[in-house]
Design brief:
Layout: E1 7-11, H1 17-27, E2 31-35, E3 49-53, H2 64-76, E4 80-83, H3 86-94, H4 96-99, H5 110-117, H6 119-128, E5 136-139, H7 142-152, E6 156-159, E7 176-178, H8 181-188, E8 197-201, E9 206-215, E10 218-229, E11 239-242, H9 247-260, E12 264-272, E13 279-285, H10 292-297, H11 302-312, E14 326-328, H12 330-342, H13 355-360, H14 362-366, E15 370-372, H15 381-399, H16 403-419, E16 422-427, H17 433-444, E17 450-455, H18 466-473, H19 489-494, E18 497-500, H20 503-512, E19 520-522, H21 542-557
Helix pairs in contact: 1-11, 5-6, 7-8, 17-21, 18-21
């Protein structure tokens, strides 16, 4: 292909859609700038990033981020700004009138955005157009929720109106599966009935995505994948394969895109029951999809095509791609493997695979039909950094098990807790470990000390995941009103003692606040027998959260003797 010339700004962070977009446009010859990225993101090690820009995090009540972004667009003179995640897509959409004078935004038009972004509106659109959809109703009370459960049976799928809100696009509202009537009332406590909650009959099947590039409602090229490994309760996949376009699903996607007069990239998500051949529409995602590494590896360079369509007016794109290709996100897949083998593979409502099926996947690697989301021969450093992070966690934790090292950590931590008056707990995101430790310490230690918590992940206002809420409740700790706080220099100055939970947290201080290291200690060192590092349960099961919270409580109640 002829090299392109130009400059783009990509907003994102992960090793799937964001890193793939960076590599695609960098390889095309464009000058790639990025922003709104955590400093620890492996994607930032890509050789295709020309410059990283630090911008204030989005806040609905403070437009400092908007002023900074406008200043960057004025100075950078970018051909195109591409948001890769909801947390950047939503702010750009709602402030497009302020931003569009300075750069072209890769966003669908406002009406298409609203219709596709809302799960309810997308469902109603599909229903009106004759696209198969699962039975669904909107409920606004616990009584209506119970009635829906009696009508649809269990498991019951409970969905938010939209995955994120304008006020807080960093907090992702998760789809929940409820398996028993006795769990329904517990789930109901966290539901925003005043806004309307979507309740859906469970459809047994695998996730399938039809990904498209459109202009004015016309599909210019399309790709299809199916999920091989996806979370047992549903969600983003860690392992997927390319499959031929299904004429019926592609036809449904064409109908939807035409009705929306859609321009841009989009994934239309379906569920397919292999036994019956039936399928249903699940939702419409109006941005790049998590399986984008597979799309590119199979031969469709969609990020480049998007740039050429919007900035060069191109409309003729390749239609063929390689099928039966696989792509794996190794970090996510480790969590999937653990959860898969802990659950029964015979339960049709859980998306499990038997051991032989998983073992057979090695032949995809040997047959050179599998790629990694992160590894690339021409851009190896994101994968190397990702592996270094994992190795550091594993081997660093092992070294901290040595008796003399542990004794030193425990003595220092215990003295710091006893003598400190302003205690700050710091973990990565401030949504799982540190807020629980803060509230538990207030209950159990209380008078004479002040406790606060924060995270070094640069996104404020995120809420704790459901498993954290449920697990914390077992220890009489209420996380339901907690919103994440980003670690600042002011907070560090306020604290006379800082407790971190793992090596990554400490590494953050080593890189950014080395002068604070004398007052930084491992939280796990507080306990007589607890591990020095307290692992992050984010993304894990409720049992994972219960185990971590039990460990935190034990460290606070069973102190080591200094």
């Amino acid at each position: 292909m002829t090299p392109l010339s130009g400059r783009v700004l990509i907003l994102g962070e992960d090793t799937r859609s964001f890193l793939s977009t960076v590599r695609s446009l960098g390889r095309a010859g464009l000058e790639v700038h990025v922003a709104w990225c955590p400093f620890t993101a492996p994607a930032l090690r890509s050789r295709y990033i020309h410059k990283l820009h630090r911008l204030p995090a989005y806040q609905a009540t403070d437009d400092a981020w908007l002023r900074a972004l406008i200043h960057l667009l004025q100075a950078g003179k970018f051909d195109l700004v591409i948001p890769c995640h909801d947390s950047s897509l939503v702010p750009l959409h709602h402030h497009r009138s302020s931003l569009e004078p300075y750069a072209r935004l890769a966003l669908p038009d406002p009406q298409s955005f609203e219709l596709s972004f809302s799960k309810r509106k997308a469902y109603e659109l599909g229903q009106t157009l004759g696209v198969p959809v699962p039975p669904q109703r909107e409920v606004r009370s616990i009584a209506e929720l119970h009635a829906a459960a009696e009508e649809f049976g269990f498991p019951l799928v409970v969905k938010p109106e939209a995955s994120v809100s304008t006020a807080n696009p960093f907090y992702r509202r998760m789809v929940t599966k409820v398996f028993r009537m006795e769990d329904l009332d517990q789930v109901a406590k966290t539901l925003p009935f005043s806004q309307g909650v979507l309740v859906q009959q469970n459809f047994i099947g695998i996730g399938v995505g039809v990904e498209v590039l459109c202009r004015d409602g016309e599909i210019l090229t399309a790709f299809q994948h199916e999920r091989v490994h996806e979370p047992l309760m549903g969600g983003g996949s860690s392992y997927r394969r390319s499959v031929p376009l299904d004429p019926a699903m592609l036809g449904a996607a064409r109908t939807l895109m035409s009705a929306l007069n859609y321009t841009g990239v989009c994934m239309v998500e379906f569920k397919l029951n292999r036994d019956t051949g039936k399928w249903v529409l699940i939702e419409i995602n109006n941005r790049f999809w998590g399986s984008l590494p597979l799309t590119i590896a199979a031969g469709l360079d969609i990020p480049r095509y998007l740039y050429e369509m919007l900035c060069r007016g191109r409309s003729d794109f390749p239609q063929q791609y390689r099928t039966n290709r696989y792509a794996r996100n190794w970090v996510m897949d480790l969590y999937w493997l653990s959860a898969n083998f802990k659950n029964k593979s015979t339960d049709p409502t859980l998306l499990t695979l038997d051991g032989w099926t998983v073992a057979w996947e090695v032949f995809h690697i040997l047959g050179l039909r599998e790629t990694s989301d992160t590894w690339a021969f021409d851009d190896p450093f994101p994968a190397i950094h990702e592996m270094a992070q994992l190795a550091g966690q594993r081997f660093g934790r092992r070294s901290r098990r040595w008796t003399l090292v542990q004794r030193s950590f425990r003595r220092a931590a215990q003295i710091a807790m006893r003598t400190g008056h302003k205690i700050l707990f710091v973990c990565k995101g401030n949504i799982c470990r540190s807020p629980f430790a803060e509230l538990a310490a207030r209950q159990m230690i209380g008078a004479g000390k002040e406790f606060r918590s924060a995270g070094h992940y640069p996104v404020p206002g995120r809420r704790s995941p459901k498993n954290a809420l449920d697990a914390a409740r077992s220890f009489t700790v209420d996380l339901s009103t907690h919103q994440s706080v980003v670690l600042t220099e002011e907070l560090i100055d306020w604290a006379d003692t800082i407790f971190v939970f793992d090596a990554e947290n400490r590494a953050f201080f080593e890189d950014h606040f080395p002068n604070a290291l004398p007052k930084v200690h491992y939280f796990g060192g507080l306990g007589r027998s607890t591990p020095v590092e307290v692992v992050d349960p984010f993304g894990g099961s409720i049992d994972d959260f219960l185990g971590v919270y039990r460990m935190i409580q034990k460290a606070l109640t069973d102190p080591a003797v200094p």
